[in-house]
Amino acid sequence: MLSADSLPDHPTGGHVLLAPSRFKGSLTAREVARHLAAGLRRARPAVPIVELPVADGGDGTAEAAIAAGWRRVRVEVSGPTGRPVTASLAIDGRSAVVELAEASGLRRLPGGRLHPLGATSLGTGQMLAHAVRLGARRIVLGVGGAACTDGGAGLVQGLGGRLLDAKGRELPPGAAALRSLHTLDLRGMADLSGVEVIVAGDAGGALLGRNGAAVGQARRKGAGPEEIRVLDAALRRWADLAEAASRTAARDRPGAGAAGGVGFAALAFLGATLEPGIGLMLDLLGFAGKARGAHLVVAGEGALDVQSLRGRAPIGVARAAARAGVPVVAAVGRRGLTGEQLRKARIQGVYALTDIEPDAARCMRQAGPLLEQLTVAIADEWLPRRRSAPPAAL
């Protein structure tokens, strides 16, 4: 394990790169970075600091791009229950970051009330269409935090496709209505033939089956056993007609079940590719260049546990830092990994809010000030003050 003793005296070792993700329920990634920077500046005023909030395709993905200098574009779209919401997407030249959670996420549910049968990805399709109208030719679609289990049918509707029943009536948004689906009319769909769409997030499994969008995910979105059966049947009907219309077999491909099946629609209708979210975002945000010459990288997340090992932000940051030859530590809300797991993840040290405040509720409420306190330990162990030169001999 590396330690400060094996590093050059600071500040000659370079800057500190702050690359945290959000603390769920407490702070955005940008807020975490700002609190870490404030604490470090008090502890080591001479330390050069670079803030780079990150995300892995879930909540905060668009904000991470905006914090890195991408242009924010606000657009009014349909929320997961049909109520209008104002969502943000990020634009940089001909590239865009569209975050599903901005339009169709759990945090957009009115009053937080889950809506498993009716929640829709319609607003996400509307955001994609808006990005294309703005001239985007490369779109990163972050798919974490979805409220819907509609197989991406709403996304197709948001792009201008029409879903019709046997009498030619347009179906309302939401998965339950898909049981009555008879025909797809794609003549009005936005033309994305020249647009590269990359789905960023955990690839996950197929659309249907034991680990699919309904059986594997819908319980977390409020579905009971009967509702899960309804959803699975609706998604099966949707897959049959969608594959026939798109002439693409996508239901069994890895990632088809992502975000309640939005991955399926992206694969079938948009020709999308799938990439691990954090690696893709670090490339977009220019992590490698910002890590070059750094003395230390500080990652961060609300909980560093076994779920993190599935490719969440701190693990991706640690691996990228290792490729750059820079040690990385993590500032977290709570830790749940063994020393061996941390070693394999390339994380040299973990500093948790629960180390200085055992009350978890207070950690949530006071995460910002506590993070600033936590930086004292990071500075003491990894950013030694410049050693004084010995007096000259007389």
TrEMBL record:
<dbReference type="Pfam" id="PF02595">
    <property type="entry name" value="Gly_kinase"/>
</dbReference>
<protein>
    <submittedName>
        <fullName>Glycerate kinase</fullName>
        <ecNumber>2.7.1.31</ecNumber>
    </submittedName>
</protein>
<dbReference type="InterPro" id="IPR004381">
    <property type="entry name" value="Glycerate_kinase"/>
</dbReference>
<dbReference type="InterPro" id="IPR018197">
    <property type="entry name" value="Glycerate_kinase_RE-like"/>
</dbReference>
<dbReference type="GO" id="GO:0008887">
    <property type="term" value="F:glycerate kinase activity"/>
</dbReference>
<dbReference type="GO" id="GO:0031388">
    <property type="term" value="P:organic acid phosphorylation"/>
</dbReference>
<keyword id="KW-0808">Transferase</keyword>
<dbReference type="InterPro" id="IPR036129">
    <property type="entry name" value="Glycerate_kinase_sf"/>
</dbReference>
<keyword id="KW-0418">Kinase</keyword>
<comment type="similarity">
    <text>Belongs to the glycerate kinase type-1 family.</text>
</comment>
<dbReference type="InterPro" id="IPR018193">
    <property type="entry name" value="Glyc_kinase_flavodox-like_fold"/>
</dbReference>
